[in-house]
Amino acid sequence: MSKDMISFLEELKSNFSYDKPVTVVMGNEAADLDSMVSAVTCAWYLYLSDASSNPFPLINIPRADFKLRTEAVFLFNEAGVNLDLLMFAEDIDLLRLKESGNLKLVLVDHNKIGSDQENLIDTVTGIIDHHADEKTYPSSADVDIRPVGSASTIIAESFLKNQSNSITTPLCTLLLGTILLDTVNLDPAAGRVTDDDEKAAAAIVKITGLDQKILFDKLQFEKFNVSSLGSYDLLRKDYKEWQFGSVKCGIGAVLQPIEKWIQKDPDISKACDRYLSERNLDILFAMNAFTAPEFTRQLVVYIKDEALRSRTIDFLETTEMGLEKLDIDNEGSCLFYNQKNLGISRKKLQPLLKDFFEK
């Protein structure tokens, strides 16, 4: 049996085979920190409980997208986990496993399987989650769904109760960091923390001596730290798109000032053009939001079609967004604005655009 979680992860890839039963522990398609950590730590727990279940944690996104989750990159490194050991969407062909009759699926941090993976629903044998129970899984599944602040809390409880001898600092760094980030450092004012989260976090801190405040502050910083990302990755880190009639529109949220972005990449338009083309977009926006020192919003507009650009700009400049054009010398055809109305987020811009383009 593996000595610790790191050793378990190191052995995974060499042990994988489509020709023997596999229990895949998988987070949701959004793959936030809780989904990733839950998958890894739950798989380790299942291995300790019954190594014959052959558990493999799967992070449910392509490997290339992992670097966009800057807080996850930080926390796994902080826990001493070599990122090359993690398994991503392209590493396991779930349909092939199912067709061979060798797939058992454990869902963590979600209880309704994503639309792209619905054909795997009958292989779900277990669920650990903290969202509303949608009851779309097989009735035979072993389910633990509770309204705690983090799915990692439920897994931490299992270790504390049943596998206390296997509790190590790397494991606890992952679990505690995730619980703290999900509950805003156990702050009741955030409306996410429960007694179970507080108890699990307190027990981990007592056992390991981890500093709760230092770990949370580092995670919170890294969550918004985009200094390592180029323009293309900045656009897709936090991205949503919509079809407004005949117009396909994408909006990325970028957590830094336009001026700082251009200083790093004078030709933002090149990345915008690539992203617009790859996604078959008509319009691409970047909504920049940051605090330096006051909270500020800005807007980047990239539209190749001149008539559509003119029509869209005329509309945007008359909305309540309070746009003020920035006189920025850049190498491409992006337009840059300060946004005086700080209340217009992406969530509120979307219906404005929908009404305009579909009227």
Question: Tags for this entry?
Answer:
inorganic pyrophosphatase (n-terminal core), 11 strands, 13 helices, 2 domains, 359 residues, alpha/beta, Diaminopimelate Epimerase, Chain A, domain 1, five-stranded parallel β-sheet, six-stranded mixed β-sheet
Structural write-up:
The mean pLDDT is 95. The chain has 2 domains: 5-222, inorganic pyrophosphatase (n-terminal core), CATH 3.90.1640.10; 231-358, Roll (Diaminopimelate Epimerase, Chain A, domain 1). Helix 2 (33-49) packs antiparallel against helix 6. The chain has helices at 5-15, 33-49, 70-78, 94-99, 151-162, 169-182, 195-208, 212-223, 231-237, 258-264, 268-278, 306-316, 346-358, and strands at residues 22-26, 55-58, 103-108, 124-129, 142-145, 239-244, 247-254, 283-291, 295-302, 323-325, 335-339. The radius of gyration is 23 Å and the shape is globular. It contains 13 helices and 11 strands. A 6-stranded mixed β-sheet has the order 6-7-8-9-11-10. The termini are far apart. The protein is an alpha/beta fold and 359 residues long.
Q: What is the helix content?
A: 40-55%
Query: How many extended strands?
Result: 11
Write down the CATH class of the largest domain.
Alpha Beta
Mean residue pLDDT: 95
According to CATH, the fold-level topology of the largest domain is inorganic pyrophosphatase (n-terminal core)
The number of domains: 2
Our Rg estimate from Cα atoms comes to: 23 Å
Structural class: alpha/beta
The coarse silhouette is globular
End-to-end Cα distance: 64 Å
- Helix and strand pattern: HEHEHHEEEHHHHHEEHHEEHEEH
Query: In which order are the strands of the major sheet placed?
Result: 6-7-8-9-11-10
